[in-house]
Specification:
The complex is a heterodimer. By secondary structure, chain A is an all-alpha fold. Chain A has 17 helices and no strands. Chain B folds into three domains: about 240 residues, Rossmann fold (3-Layer(aba) Sandwich), CATH 3.40.50.300; about 180 residues, P-loop containing nucleotide triphosphate hydrolases (Rossmann fold), CATH 3.40.50.300; about 70 residues, no CATH class. Classes of the chains: A mainly alpha, B alpha/beta. Chains A and B meet through helix 10, helix 11 and helix 17 of A and helix 1, helix 10, helix 11 and strand 20 of B.
Chain lengths: ~400, ~525
């Protein structure tokens, strides 16, 4: 009897040991722990600031689920965040810190919006045309800093931030002087006609009418949902199954090696910026034609930078990006609910967001936990060499 | 029998079942230089990690001056006077030398670092042990040799009596190695004990008093150095006869594969690193380039492989100039290149072994299939290479960083040799790898002559150049100053005179032999 108990114990240990030895599960646990800690700290701050801390905090935690339209808002924002996360993952994978998604997105929105408003094509042509145009504009607006970085060695952080400002001003100028109807009281376009809007993701079939009126029609979730899923798969294949993706990843791993091996590093870097822009442009099309359904000032709400958070949460892995986008989108949606329904300010939530980003992405902090967990179970020793510590130093050398 | 340190029946089993140390007995006498040798993976580092408190032994005991000790962490080891200098230096680059040395037990003045005192302490230590460092230079700006001396001083500052040096010469030039050896002797004279991990047998003979050989986690024996021969040690390490000198079948030299003419290179900072270099490499021969490091050999290789632009001149393969076209064109012209610095140029550490093996061919059939890369092909290609070139790894999908140095080099060798090159440029092909891997690489190089490949061999190891090459040129200050058509007919001393610029041949003299 005794023997069998200890055996089952060791089996249980074996299960956990096995689970913990898988890097992806460990990574997942790491993120979960980081978010839990951040939420804990967030609650402590809420306790201090709010008169009704429990109510405020539950608005943050559960708010997005309390109404159907809130669920819709959450999903819609997550779709935009997915596109942006993919855009960031592509450049980050090549070890390029492009922050240009904001500008690419805004211009994508502008072009998509202009086509939706002014090009007299039927829906089934107008919408694809607008989406395609937004992608092309994103591509071109990415090509620019890509060229500057690759061939003129201009720092991409600076150049993309400058180009963001430029794009936003361009957007406002075109919107104010060319798109806004002269008699409108505020700076915005007309609402797009039905021909220029992304159709709902749920086809208008004769049956299931109840379901539709009760749930689907309460939200604005559009076919962008499918575009996002396709985009995730496309980026995954692009990154891990094509020569371009191989070049991208080798440059990211060690650009000197890539050059030594014969890869045209400059061209690939330039293309990385541009291809990244395609997905930021898509995000812009979604903002214009899926969410707002008209062009407004400040259409992005600085969403562009949130793609970075999403991509970092997902460790630049395209397949993880939709999940990271949903998680982060949930947090943002919760923030909106809390702001509206309690005495807490939006800033408070920004603080919690900041803590999460810090904990998840500050790779120097939590690997300690990771290593702790790792030390409970098999390391991969090449007897004479790499300890887990040795590994990380080895990786550090690989950089540019 | 004056053992300052004794490790008895040390067993270290990693949780996944790998037995790294299998009943190791290891004893070090007071005041000796004890070399610990063995191939990568023999368990040397594990044994030293156990000693330094980085790993806990599964069983066995450690006696320090006759008393059993139990180190839970390096802190305990340091407190007991055991210090270790790692292969990868652990210094703060933005701190000064003195700050690095006193880090952790800084002299303070009103809670602030007393810089003057730190500098004084550093200078005193440096003088005492003959380890020259600049106390107030930042670590960023000092060379590798000095960084190593800082590491050693840091350990001494913390009161180490027994110093473990983990492959200290792997990163040093020959001159720096000589200096290091002088310093080690001085340490021992002052009563310190040194454990010296290496796999360079020549150094074992030169510096140590006794040597312990490990293989497969076991000690194969401990010898006084007077009884050790390089051949004998190599045999103990590898477990079979090792050919330290390579057998070369004579090969009829063929047509000129590479014709370099009037090649010059000016560095980005405006220094002329290559001046009007002219030579040919013929099919079926190894042309060795000898020279003290820094006399243009690195630049020669980088220009020929397309990594750097030439200022003047041509390098023709089949009458096509390969200069200034970038690495892809050079490779397509039939050039393979084993780079001098494998971690910088030769590999992407975080990428898989399989992916490292296709950097020069991923864009061609059979790897490229329409618009995608056929990963089944990549994996089976990896398996083939791992098998053929004896790369020790359980799976080609693992990152290269999981391999030992010798096996990393085999990844490069596998890739470059399997591309069927017309010209193979091999720069420092055996630097920092173990005896078994070195033998393998050298044999492969000599083998390549038989397929009438032209080989350009650049090596800082003069004996390597002399034993492998058919023909030797000597470079000095960016020029070829001597050419020796029969490598076997020239002495080391003669080459040395050319390498130091004391002797040089007239261009007319060299003309016929280039």
């Amino acid at each position: 009897m005794k023997a069998s108990t200890s055996q089952s114990e060791s089996v249980a240990k074996g299960f956990w040991g096995k689970a913990l030895s898988s890097p992806s599960i460990r990574e997942f646990l790491r993120v979960v722990i980081a978010i839990s800690i951040a939420l804990g700290i967030g609650f402590i701050i809420t306790l201090i600031v709010s008169d009704e801390p429990v109510k405020a905090y539950s608005a943050l935690l559960f708010g997005p689920l309390t109404k159907i339209n809130r669920v819709g808002d959450w999903i819609e924002e997550s779709i935009t965040l997915t596109f942006l996360g993919l855009a960031v993952a592509i450049v980050f994978k090549a070890n390029q810190f492009s922050l240009g998604q904001e500008g690419q997105m805004v211009l994508g929105a502008l072009v998509a919006g202009a086509i939706s408003l002014f090009v007299p094509l039927p829906t089934y042509l107008r919408v694809p045309f607008a989406i395609l145009a937004a992608m092309i504009v994103g591509f071109l607006w990415g090509l620019l800093p890509g060229y500057l970085k690759a061939y003129l060695n201009a720092n991409e952080i600076v150049s993309t931030l400058m180009l963001n400002s430029l794009a936003i001003l361009l957007y406002e100028w075109v919107l104010t002087y060319y798109i806004k109807p002269p008699d409108a009281g505020y700076t915005a376009s007309d609402t797009f006609s039905a021909d220029g809007i992304m159709p709902t993701f749920f086809p208008k079939l004769p049956f299931l009418t109840d379901l539709r009126t009760q749930f689907i029609d309460q939200t604005n979730i559009s076919i962008a949902l499918y575009l996002a899923i396709i985009a995730v798969i496309v980026v995954y294949y692009l990154m891990f199954r094509t020569p371009f993706g191989y070049e991208l990843r080798m440059i990211g791993a060690n650009s000197k090696f890539a050059r030594y091996g014969g890869i045209n590093v400059k061209k690939t870097i330039m293309l990385a910026f541009a291809v990244s822009g395609v997905f930021a442009g898509l995000a812009g099309a979604h903002l214009a034609m899926g969410i707002h359904r008209k062009l407004i000032l400040n259409i992005s709400f600085a969403l562009g930078f949130e793609g970075i958070v999403v991509s970092l949460l997902a460790n630049n892995n395209p397949l993880a990006i939709p999940f990271a986008a949903l998680a982060y989108g949930y947090l943002r949606a919760g923030a909106n609910v809390m702001e509206r329904s309690s005495d807490m300010s939006r800033e408070m939530v920004l603080v919690i967001q900041g803590i999460i980003i810090l904990l998840v992405t500050a790779e120097r902090i939590l690997p300690m936990v990771q290593r702790r967990i790792a030390s409970q179970k098999p390391k991969e020793p090449t007897m004479d060499g790499q300890s887990p510590l040795g590994d990380s130093t080895g990786l550090a050398e690989g950089g540019d | 029998m004056n053992n300052v340190l004794e490790m008895r029946k040390i067993v270290k089993v990693y949780p996944n079942g790998v037995v790294a140390n299998d009943g190791v007995d290891f004893a070090v006498e007071q005041g000796e230089i004890h070399a610990l040798v063995g191939e990568n993976g023999a368990g040397k580092s594990t044994l030293m990690k156990v000693l330094y408190g980085l790993e806990r032994p599964t069983s066995g005991e450690i006696l320090l001056r006759g008393n059993p000790v139990n180190f839970r962490s390096p802190h305990d080891a340091i407190a007991a006077g055991v210090g270790m200098v790692h292969q990868n230096f652990m210094l703060v680059p933005s701190f000064t030398v003195a700050q690095n040395i006193v880090l952790g037990s800084e002299p303070t003045q009103r809670a602030l670092l007393d810089k003057k005192k730190a500098n004084e302490v550093t200078k005193k230590l440096a003088e005492q042990y003959g380890l020259h460092v600049e106390a107030d230079a930042t670590v960023d700006g000092i060379n590798v040799g000095m960084r190593q001396r800082v590491e050693i001083l840091k350990t001494l500052f913390r009161g180490a009596e027994i110093l473990i040096l983990d492959e200290p010469t792997a990163v040093l030039t020959p001159q720096e190695t000589t200096e290091l050896f002088l310093a080690i002797r001085k340490l021992v004279q002052q009563g310190k004990t040194v454990i010296f991990i290496t796999h360079k047998l020549r150094e074992v003979k030169e510096i140590s008093d006794r040597v312990t050989v490990m293989r497969h986690g076991r000690v194969m024996g401990t010898l006084p150095i007077s009884e050790a021969t390089r051949e004998g040690l190599a045999c103990m390490m590898v477990g079979r006869e090792v050919l330290l000198s390579v057998d070369k079948t004579p090969v009829e030299r063929g047509k000129a594969v590479l014709m370099v003419d009037d090649l010059s290179y000016v560095s980005e900072t405006g220094r002329t690193m290559l001046r009007n270099v002219k030579f040919n490499v013929y099919a079926g021969e190894i042309l060795g380039v000898a020279g003290v490091e820094g006399n243009g050999q690195t630049e020669l290789v980088e220009v020929l492989s397309g990594l750097k632009p030439a200022a003047t001149g041509t390098a023709r393969i089949d009458s096509k100039n390969i200069l200034n076209n970038g690495p892809r064109e050079v490779r397509l012209a039939g050039v393979a290149h084993i780079p001098e610095d494998r971690l910088t140029n030769g590999l992407a550490l975080s990428a898989s072994i399989d992916e490292n093996l296709i950097i020069d061919r991923y864009f061609r059939s059979p790897f490229k299939k329409r618009i995608t890369i056929n990963y089944q092909e990549v994996i089976s290609h990896g398996e083939k290479m791992i098998d053929e070139y004896d790369i020790r790894t359980p799976d080609g999908r693992l990152p290269v960083s999981s391999l030992s140095g010798g096996n990393m080099q085999k990844v490069i060798v596998a890739r470059e040799f399997s591309s069927q090159p017309a010209l193979l440029i091999a720069a420092q092909p055996t630097r920092g790898i173990d005896v078994g891997a070195t033998e393998f690489v050298r044999q492969q190089l000599v083998q390549k002559r038989l397929d009438s490949t032209a080989v350009l061999l650049v090596s800082a190891d003069l004996s390597e150049v002399m034993s492998l090459s058919d023909r030797i040129v000597v470079m000095y200050e960016g020029q070829i100053v001597g050419v020796f058509p029969e490598a076997s007919m020239v002495s080391e001393e003669e080459l040395g005179l050319y390498m130091l610029g004391i002797k040089r041949q007239e261009p007319s003299e060299m003309e016929a032999n280039l």
